[in-house]
Each structure stands twice: as structure tokens, then as C-alpha cells.
Design a protein that fits this description.
The complex is a heterodimer.
Chain A lengths: L5 E11 L6 H12 L11 E10 L2 H16 L5 E6 L1
Antiparallel strand pairs in A: 1-2, 1-3
Chain B lengths: L1 E6 L6 H11 L3 E6 L10 E4 L19 H11 L3 E5 L1 H8 L6 E3 L7 E9 L15 E8 L3 E3 L2 H9 L3 E6 L18 E5 L5 E4 L17 H15 L1
Parallel strand pairs in B: 1-2, 1-3, 3-4, 4-11
Antiparallel strand pairs in B: 5-8, 6-7, 6-9, 9-10, 10-11
The chains are: A alpha+beta, B alpha/beta.
Amino acid sequence: MSKEKKSYQATVYVRLKEGVLDPQGTTIKRALGDMGYKGVEEIRSGKFFEVRFFSESKREALKLVSEISDKLLANPVIEDFKVEI
Amino acid sequence: MKFGVVIFPGSNCDYDAYQIIKSVMQEEVEFLWHQDKDLNGCDCVILPGGFSYGDYLRTGAIARFAPIMQEIFDFAEKGGLVIGICNGFQILLEAGLLPGAMLRNSSLRFVCKWVHIKVEQENTPFTSNCQRFQVLKIPVAHTDGNYFISEEGLKKLKENNQIVFHYCSPQGKIDPVYNPNGALENIAGICNLKRNVLGMMPHPERAGEKILGTEDGKHIFSSIVNFVKGKAN
């Protein structure tokens, strides 16, 4: 008998790697300066994804989401990702 | 010879590419649909400009998984000629057929203007009709043309002479002033190690008739034609 599958929700955070220029972050930082917020040293932009799906175990779930993050959600040339379940 | 122009949902330079080949170069050309699983015997595949899949996620990221891409991987592996223009270049990067990635333009703006590019490599199937260091006037039109590659990757590109075009002045001077998008070291186009896959941000298909401002773009397509016909003879 196959194991019953449970519903999981994962959050994937994708951010530009250290050392990769972030034109959006730089522009936002400049705007904050114009707005009068002093002392903002750096802004790095990123994105996150919520993935809901069925899986047999948390371990399997993590494996699947890591795989799709590596293949599609993030571009490993310029981005890092982190998965939370 | 026969060219194939791939249409993805959101491609918008497909007809420009078709037009220059059919009417200006007077060569055979057909459209290939992104769902196709056959390149119909084309000698050169063009991935055109546009906004495939709405540029969702990252430019080229979704198109890279279209069914026709598997055929293009096999075709490129066997030495077939593949040229990606603008969004086509972005797709080739996402697909890993060319190294590096595209970031948002440093200005964060859509840039649409004439630029000059310097031909650094004339020994590719795409530039063999050009002189080394020849300057071509060709337009760009993109939001994500800010080419990025790791330091190590850049070193390899240089060692293997894979940087085909640099943004430059009308006289050929390479300087950040002439860089429209913040691309690393003014890189406008690169090829793979085997030199049968080229990606370039500027649009040669929009610059092939005098009435459009210049005929410089024709050099790219005539190089391809000469290369393929020369091989056939």
C-alpha cells in the first residue's frame, strides 16, 4: 500500500548572488535617499514563490522544491535560492 | 539554404527576420512553431526578438523549456547554426547554450536606439563577411541586456575568443559611454566554444535596407549564407 500523500506549502526565496549588481536595489536605495531616509547602506531586491503540492514526506517535498528551484525558479548563474517548508 | 524562424508566444521580431531573409537575402525561410518537434531541414535556426511568455520569471526562462528547444539542443550539438537575437540571446543564455546571464539594464529603462558595435571576431559563421574591427550600426531595443558572467567565465570567453561584438563609438572606440545597458565590458554579442551558436542584443534584421537607415545588418545574414553554401560546395 502506498503512503498517503499530504499537502505541503513551500516558500522559495530567490535573490541575486553576492557580487552580482542589482540595478533595482540601487535605484530603490537612491529613492530612499531622496525621500530623506539617511543611512540606508544597501538594498538588495529579490522575489519569493509559494508552492503548494502533495508529497509523501517532508524530505521528498524538500527534494522536489529544490529541484524545481534549481531548474526553473532561479538562474544559478546569477541567483541563489532558499527553500522553507 | 533554408532558414527557420522560431515563433514563441510573445515573439515580435519573427516577421522582421522572415522579411530580411526572404525579400532582402532572397533565401528560403519558414516559421517554426515553439511546439514543433522538427526543424524541417533548416540549415540555420533564428530565435527572434520579442517577449516570449511575457518575459515572466526571467527573460527567456520559460521559452527555454518549449518542446522545440530539445531539437535545437540536438541541432546545435551536431554543429547546426543557431542565432539568437535580443530575446533569442536571452533564451540561449537560459538554455545554457551560451554562458552567462542577462540582468535588468542599469538604467532600469527600455532602451530603443541606434548603437554601434565592433566586430571582434570575423572567424565565425555569422561574421565571416565582416572585416575584423569593422563597426556596424544596428539598433537595440530591450530592457534586459545587461550581460553578466562570473570573473572566471569572462576569462574563458576571452581566452577562447568568444566575444564577437562590443558596443563602441561610431569610430570603434570601446568606452562605457557607448554602453546602452551596463553590459559587462560593453559585451554586445558572444558565441559558444564551437562557434556555431551566436547571441547578440542588437537587431541586424531591423537594419538590412537603406530605407531603414543602414544595411549593416545584412553582413550577419550574408555571412551565414556564404558559410552554409560554401560548406555545401
